Amino acid sequence: MNSSRPVTIKDIARRFRCSPSTVSRALNDHPAINEDTRKNIQEYAKEVGYQRNEVSLSLLNKKTASLGVVVPTISNYYETAVIEGLHTVLQPMGYTLNICVTNESYLLEKESLSKLLSNRTEGIFLSVSQETYDAGYYEHLESVIQRKTPLIFIDREYEDFETSRATVDDYHGAFAAVEHLISIGYRQIAHLKGPNGLTVSEQRFKGYINCLKKYNLPIREDLILNTNFNVESAILPTKRLLELASPPDAIFGVNDQVAIGAMRVAKDKGLRIPQDIGLVGFDNSPISAYTFPSLTTVHRPGRKIGMEASRLFLNQLNGSGDFAPESIVLPSELVIRESSLRI
Amino acid sequence: MNSSRPVTIKDIARRFRCSPSTVSRALNDHPAINEDTRKNIQEYAKEVGYQRNEVSLSLLNKKTASLGVVVPTISNYYETAVIEGLHTVLQPMGYTLNICVTNESYLLEKESLSKLLSNRTEGIFLSVSQETYDAGYYEHLESVIQRKTPLIFIDREYEDFETSRATVDDYHGAFAAVEHLISIGYRQIAHLKGPNGLTVSEQRFKGYINCLKKYNLPIREDLILNTNFNVESAILPTKRLLELASPPDAIFGVNDQVAIGAMRVAKDKGLRIPQDIGLVGFDNSPISAYTFPSLTTVHRPGRKIGMEASRLFLNQLNGSGDFAPESIVLPSELVIRESSLRI
DNA sequence: ATATTGAATGCAAACGTTTGAAAAAATTTC
DNA sequence: GAAATTTTTTCAAACGTTTGCATTCAATAT
């Protein structure tokens, strides 16, 4: 008596005293079907709200039209921008995105991947978790590779995998940011670094270090402190920086959140930005243009990364057997605003 | 020669010269299987990386363990918080979330729902698009209801549907925000409203209006301007407000983004916050605590909404036939910070 | 030696759809 | 009116897995 059972092709066939194949063909406008039969069946199908069961089709065709997106978090602007980019390209093509959040945990990442494979996902976009990255685990990726499921790395990557990847040129972005500070005249430039071990953190850190070296500025260990990418995590480190006997005259934050945290602390201390202290962030998040003063930052094209990653996936999917992995590195771009423009 | 075809139970059966049923039972630790057979099969399965095809199981059991999440956007803090909440509860239970972004478009929403139904999603969380809401369309929801697929409304809702819903008490949050401004002594309170027609906008607007009424303050049409929820959309309206012959002494923004935009414009004008102008936002986004001055706002429990919505879904799923829809309204909470604390 | 038990395995159907090939029905041709 | 042709429909298999029931085989009991 449960009216909620979805109506199937068989139901319709019974109703018309014909075979399921006829119904199937009628619904798919197959030319070998009598015009009247077709119309009747289509009308009836619409009337009873028939919707074909894609699950059975997936089984038959071994195509699921679903893709996995495995990311450490979705609560940052950048990550959602990437997902939007993926969406923009892939939703119109009929793909469904299965979003898995790993919270930076290896176990969750492993489980997510296994689940996606079990569900016969046709491709996987992966930004590995910090735990995975730290520990250098990679066994859980073997099965993905072995299955030849296209695997696209986003931002965080393993060098030694034969896979496509889309990353932002963090190194040169960071370099440009620090170079800009130097060009303005700042000399004691601190860095609020991201968590150790993550490519993103390390690349930006390297950009910072190498730029200082290039301009023969001393590298002061006491001006390099760790944060956790969010605003709060920048508060204490910034306080410590500003209480130093020889405090920095500029701070390069690993991202906008961190820079905004630093901005807040500096202002609380009565410092003027950019006169007393210069500030640069990273990401070009929407808010960065509207802080007071507005934040100099490095644009990180999240949407574009998502779209490029989609392209890489499609290339691999449609490519011939001897597929060659591609690496896309999108340039990051310095966006100069008020927080560093000391005159 | 393509080694990428996933190994199936049949493959294993062939290898052991036994029937697929035996393999299936062996893999599932069925007691009627000989200990040795079981061990051998399990070992071999592991060795060749067998992973059971969940698609076929879905077809067999009519259970897909996947849920749809249909939202207008994922680029705001609040939306991602909701999704995180859903995730927190549902991922551990084995559910997969299919995220569909509608970009506020009715057509995309309709297509997304139809796709989800075709994929035999077991439940749908829906925050209707603005277009849908404006036009009052609802036919596309009929098939969801008819299929008895649990449908949970999030925030934006249709009054006349017999479905569960989880919303935040925007009205009282807005009311409290305005009341707070009044209590501090602000009298000419402007409102940067959200897009017309959306429940969220209208409820907050209503809270604003009714609070003014309660305290016998005049309602000035010229102090009510529309925005589009993002920072940029607040810039021009705020400029207009501040250029009025009789400008407001406080602004209540429909969300934090808008309030931050307003903050920026006010500061550019040389106004001191909160001395010259008070500011209140809505959402309690992470950044709001670290603007300068920090932003008074109304906490909107996104994560909790997601978790509550999950609960509503599970209730409906496990409920008996005569299911009664539930409405959860979570309180919003005024968070007083510097931007409104004129002494 | 035969019946009885028990353990281990196989058979077949089911989930909903598509599709090549075969069959049936209708139409045309001579 | 039969043969040839065309149109329309049905059959059966396939996708990968599970599961109730039947079957097989060996061991035990009588």
From TrEMBL, chains A, B:
Keywords: DNA-binding, Transcription, Transcription regulation. InterPro entries: HTH_LacI, LacI/GalR-like_sensor, Lambda_DNA-bd_dom_sf, Peripla_BP_I, RNA_pol_sigma_54. Signal peptide: none annotated. Residues 7-61 form the HTH lacI-type domain. Gene3D superfamilies: 3.40.50.2300, lambda repressor-like DNA-binding domains (1.10.260.40). PROSITE patterns: HTH_LACI_2, SIGMA54_1. The keyword Ligase does not apply. This is LacI family transcriptional regulator. It comes from Dyadobacter fermentans. The lineage of its organism: Bacteria, Pseudomonadati, Bacteroidota, Cytophagia, Cytophagales.
